[in-house]
Amino acid sequence: MKVTVYFIIFIAIVCGCSSSHKPSENNSISGWNVIAKKVMHPDPLIECDLNLVNQKTVFPLSNLVTEFKLIKLDNATKERMISVNDKICLSTNHIIVYGSGSQTTKLFDGKGNFISIVGNIGDGPGEYAPWAETVQIDEKNKRIYQTTIANQVCINVYSLEDGRFIKRIPLVEKGNRARMFVDTQRERVSVLQVPMPHANYIIWEQDFSNHVMGGVSASQYQDANYTNSAYGWNSGCIEPVLNKLTGKISASFVHYFPTKDSLYHFENHKLSPYFTVNYVDNNNIPYHTIDELNRYFLITLYINDGSVFKKLDKRIIVDKETLKGCEISLLLDELGNIPIDFIPTFQNGFFYYNISPEELEEKIRVALQSSDVTKKNKEKLTRVLDEIEPDDNNYIMIGVLK
């Protein structure tokens, strides 16, 4: 099994858009410039050079995702309400909401109807201290897997039908901000964690009986100068993320401060660099994120203005097959061509964005005032606007990656 590891930058974001240059327009991938190359390092490594990006195009979201839906979550009771700070976990027919905004983990069906709370707050079997650190849905086997920020010695297993506790899966070692992916059929667990000084592994695979199948030692990542620096492993400024793409597991380290980083593949318990970026000024690296999609790499840059909340600067997309790329302006073409000046998440084969009714209403009203809005899009946006109520729960934009 192949695992992809991304070392990327993560920052807090507010909506906004800016551009420091005006590249030429080019709407056809065939007409894009080659902006990356393959080198041996010693394994094949793709190097993207942002100095070569001199074209720009409007890029509909439908080029990346299919089956777009706008889901209004159930708001019948207070316990069902969520915040924009909550994290989302998706499967084909279910939505789970968890994280800093919600102390408990909430289970909804794919239409937004509330099913149950997953487990509960407490110290008993299947109970947890708030809040969940990572969640996975296994729809085929009707399972939910969850770890919490306060207790990473095991994975709690719950029923997808009603959220009741089933059992625990012990972890080989206590995780530090660990993320996991569970393969129910093979009874295997892949775990990624911040390589703190006490850690034996940075990433490993184990079985349900607590036996290690293989992993990568944390020692090679435990440089004392970096670990104890203001932005290092001990700072709390780095967060691991696991992601599931078609046929492989991906993983990333999310840094809250910019650094030169690479994307790695993990195969046969070996980490090999796979994708890296040369910035316009490698001595002044901008805040950025890198997403690996099924067909593309998506690089998102933010404005360095010294504030905690960063504004979107620009997006660059790279075609994996041709290594051609372009600066893009993403449009939500399935919802009246609303500009995607917000920051969606691409994870586990899905696109999603957790949006409040107030933000959704604001974006629709702005789009309706545009001179470019077509009659058809105006009608579509007006229908959605008419359905928004002041006491609505949040909406979830969802799409399936192509």
Tell me, rounded to a whole number, the average pLDDT: 85
- Summing up helix and strand content along with how strands pair, one would put the structural category as mainly beta
Number of helices: 3
Q: What is the helical fraction, as a range of percent?
A: under 10%
Q: What's the story with the biggest beta sheet?
A: 9 strands, mixed
Our Rg estimate from Cα atoms comes to: 21 Å
Describe the structure.
Mean pLDDT is 85; it is low at 1-22. This protein has three helices and 34 strands. With 402 residues, it is mostly beta strands. 7% of the residues lie in helices and 49% in strands. A hairpin with a 2-residue loop joins β16 (143-148) and β17. Strands 2, 3, 4, 7, 27, 28, 29, 30 and 31 form a nine-stranded mixed beta sheet that branches. Strands 5-6-26-25-1-24-23 form a seven-stranded mixed beta sheet, with no helix packed on it. Strands 8-34-33-32 form a four-stranded antiparallel beta sheet. The chain is globular. The longest helix is centred in the C-terminal third of the chain and has 13 residues, at 375-387.
Descriptive terms for the model:
402 residues; mainly beta; nine-stranded mixed beta sheet; seven-stranded mixed beta sheet; 49% strand; globular; disordered N terminus
